[in-house]
Amino acid sequence: MPSIDPPAPQRIYPLKETISPENPEPFNDNYQENVPIALDLGSSSFKVGLTNNTSPNNVFPALLSRYRDRKAQKTLTIIGNDVHRDPAFKSSIKSPFDGPLITNWDYIEDMLDYSFEHLSVTSDNGKLNNPVIMTEPPACPLSQRKNMYELLFETYSAPKVTFGIDSLFSLYANTDNSKVTNSLVIGTGHESTHVIPVLDGKGILSQTKRLDWGGSQSSQFASKLLAMKYPYFPSKITPVHTSHIIKEHCYVSQDYQEELKTYLDMPNLERNDIVLQAPVEIHVPNEKKKSEEELARQAEKRREQGKRLQLQAQQKRLEKLVQKEKEWEYYSNLKLEFESLNKTQIHQRVLSEDFESIEAFNKYLASLDKALKRARNEDVGGEGNEEGNEQSWPLVDIPDDQLDEDQIKEKRKQRLLKANFDARERAKEAKREEEALVAKFEKEQEEWRARDLEDWCAVKRMELEDLVSKMKERSKLMDAFKDRKSVAAQQRMKNIATLANDESGSTSAASRKRRRNANSTIDNDPNDTFGANDDDWSVYRDITNVSLEEEQEEDTAAVLKLEEQLLKYDPKFNHEDTFSASQKFDWKNSTLHKFVHGPRENLTLKLQAEGVEPEELESNPEIIKRNHQIHLNVERIRVPEVLFQPNIAGIDQAGITSLSEDLLYRRLDGNFNAGGQAHSLIQDVFVTGGLVQWPNFIERLQKDFTSFLPVGAPLKVRSAKDPVSDAWRGMSKWASSEECTNSYVTRAEYDEMGPEYIKEHGLGNVCLM
């Protein structure tokens, strides 16, 4: 049989933290007055620079931290990448944005100061002498634009300002000619995603569609998925972690439903499962090794303790056996008396013994006989004491009035020893009889096998099937007790209520014994004798699983014995046919195991099965390391799929494919023939934004568009060359156009028209005045 090579070790990726660049934020060494400054103020990052450059001078996260230096008695304002340089700053990190809107204008002013300083802006008149081109969200609220006007015109005294939409600027940067014609723009931002139709070089804002899902929501969704998957993960998973996870390990599925069906199959899981390792320090304790003498003393001590416990347990079992034999003898004699009585007298005698009927009496006697045999076979078959002979209890038969006080005490002791000795002798005799019966049965089985092996195997297989069936049914019943709404649980509650009612007139064995032994009291209370006999506690068997567990253990032992015989004599019965093999946990067939632990066996369960001590498991370095690992599999496609199916994340909105379909067919002319609006838009479906960088995004979008477009429609889907920074490059390119020159709002126009006034252009919002 060829050997199976073990699977190759999985590659482990670190759970990344944000690390600040080694070099500080650069300062511009080529500042020029009157050159427009492009400010792409995103809720995720700021991109600033002069438009005479091909790329932004500074790119930094939109974060700010205020740190109080108690020694210097100063409050420091830390901005951008510097907030990650010192752990002391991280506790006070904040953003000026709440969703897509600015809510803290003081922070924005600090960030603009920071930006202009790094652009090396200088002035001899105390004013900002550069025009400003700035991004704003589609359908920007008037309050946002008003505050931004006030900040730029009244705080910085900017000469003129214009606003535009980032995704349209990105389209402009990726257009060869200087004039944008027709396009369908899909912009995925940090807080939302927009679908904007562009006709004749101008964005149609009245038909723009928004999906409230972006990079921030994707990170939060990934965090919730991992929190549900690993509710007791020892390390904290921060938004920074999930942001890196979705950027580096997620991808768009070409067919989500089909891929999801087989994602956890072992071949696919081997290829798709990503292991992320959280930081963990493993300390191996340096325990002082014990000497051989000390180990030997400890072993001897444990043996002595074990012997004492065994003797105590044996003594208790002997005492219980004596009590059970007395009760069995009493009821056996009573049954003999019934032979000389008529039915009426038997019924009256049964009622006087607190039994409901003769059937209940016989049932109780049979169960008592069964319990007595079980108790005899447990332990009492051992050898008696050396003094357990006729000379060991000479005082037993002497009346008490002939003995003094010390002799009476010794007589009680000898009586107990004699009872124990008699119990052992009876147990030995019962055991010899049982052994004789077993030997006779084995001889008959051997003769049967020699005579007809096939028939013997068939009968034993049937017996095994019956036992296994009973065990399964009993397991279902025991599981039903765990469900409080099940019939079994409801019946148990009724039994508990009956047990709690002192006036219920119970005829249980414990009640009968309490009435019969009324003189045996506890705490001097003649009305409360419960517990005087250890068997009293068996009343709770009706409200617990004790009897079911005992029956399950007996059947398990019988199944093991049958399987052992079949393995020995039946050539068609193999280890794979045993009950334990059918119940063995196969992690390769467990969807939950593969989802949480990936395509490798759980090391903790494996070592537990090998019998490793719990203390060793807790200190095992490999187990500690694996407990700090995250297996990313289904989440890799589930997070990106929300853009196409928002209902996955509980968003009551249409996905970008449905939004585009509705826009093309219903909001526009729906004409896919030459000359139609829809026809011209589908020839240039342009996607931009950070989420577009997911693998397979373009292919999935093209596949979905093809599914609803007419056959032969001239579909073309393209992506921005740099989906993150092309918005700024479009602003830089647009700054030199004539349209930009005519789109500025000057300080004089602001003073005259008010903060609600803007000049419309093809890449910005519309004026609502």
UniProtKB/TrEMBL annotation:
One Pfam family this sequence matches: Actin
Region Disordered, annotated ranges: 1-26, 287-309, 377-398, 496-534
Q: The organism's lineage?
A: Eukaryota, Fungi, Dikarya, Ascomycota, Saccharomycotina
Q: Which residues form a coiled coil?
A: 413-451
Record keywords: Coiled coil
Q: What's the protein here called?
A: Actin-related protein 5
Q: Show the Gene3D superfamilies listed in the entry.
A: 3.30.420.40
- Does the record bear Nucleus in its keywords? no
Q: Does the keyword Chaperone apply?
A: no
Q: Which gene encodes it?
A: ARP5
Record field: compositional bias (Basic and acidic residues): 287-307
UniProt lists the family membership as follows: Belongs to the actin family.
Residue ranges annotated as compositionally biased, kind Acidic residues, are 380-389
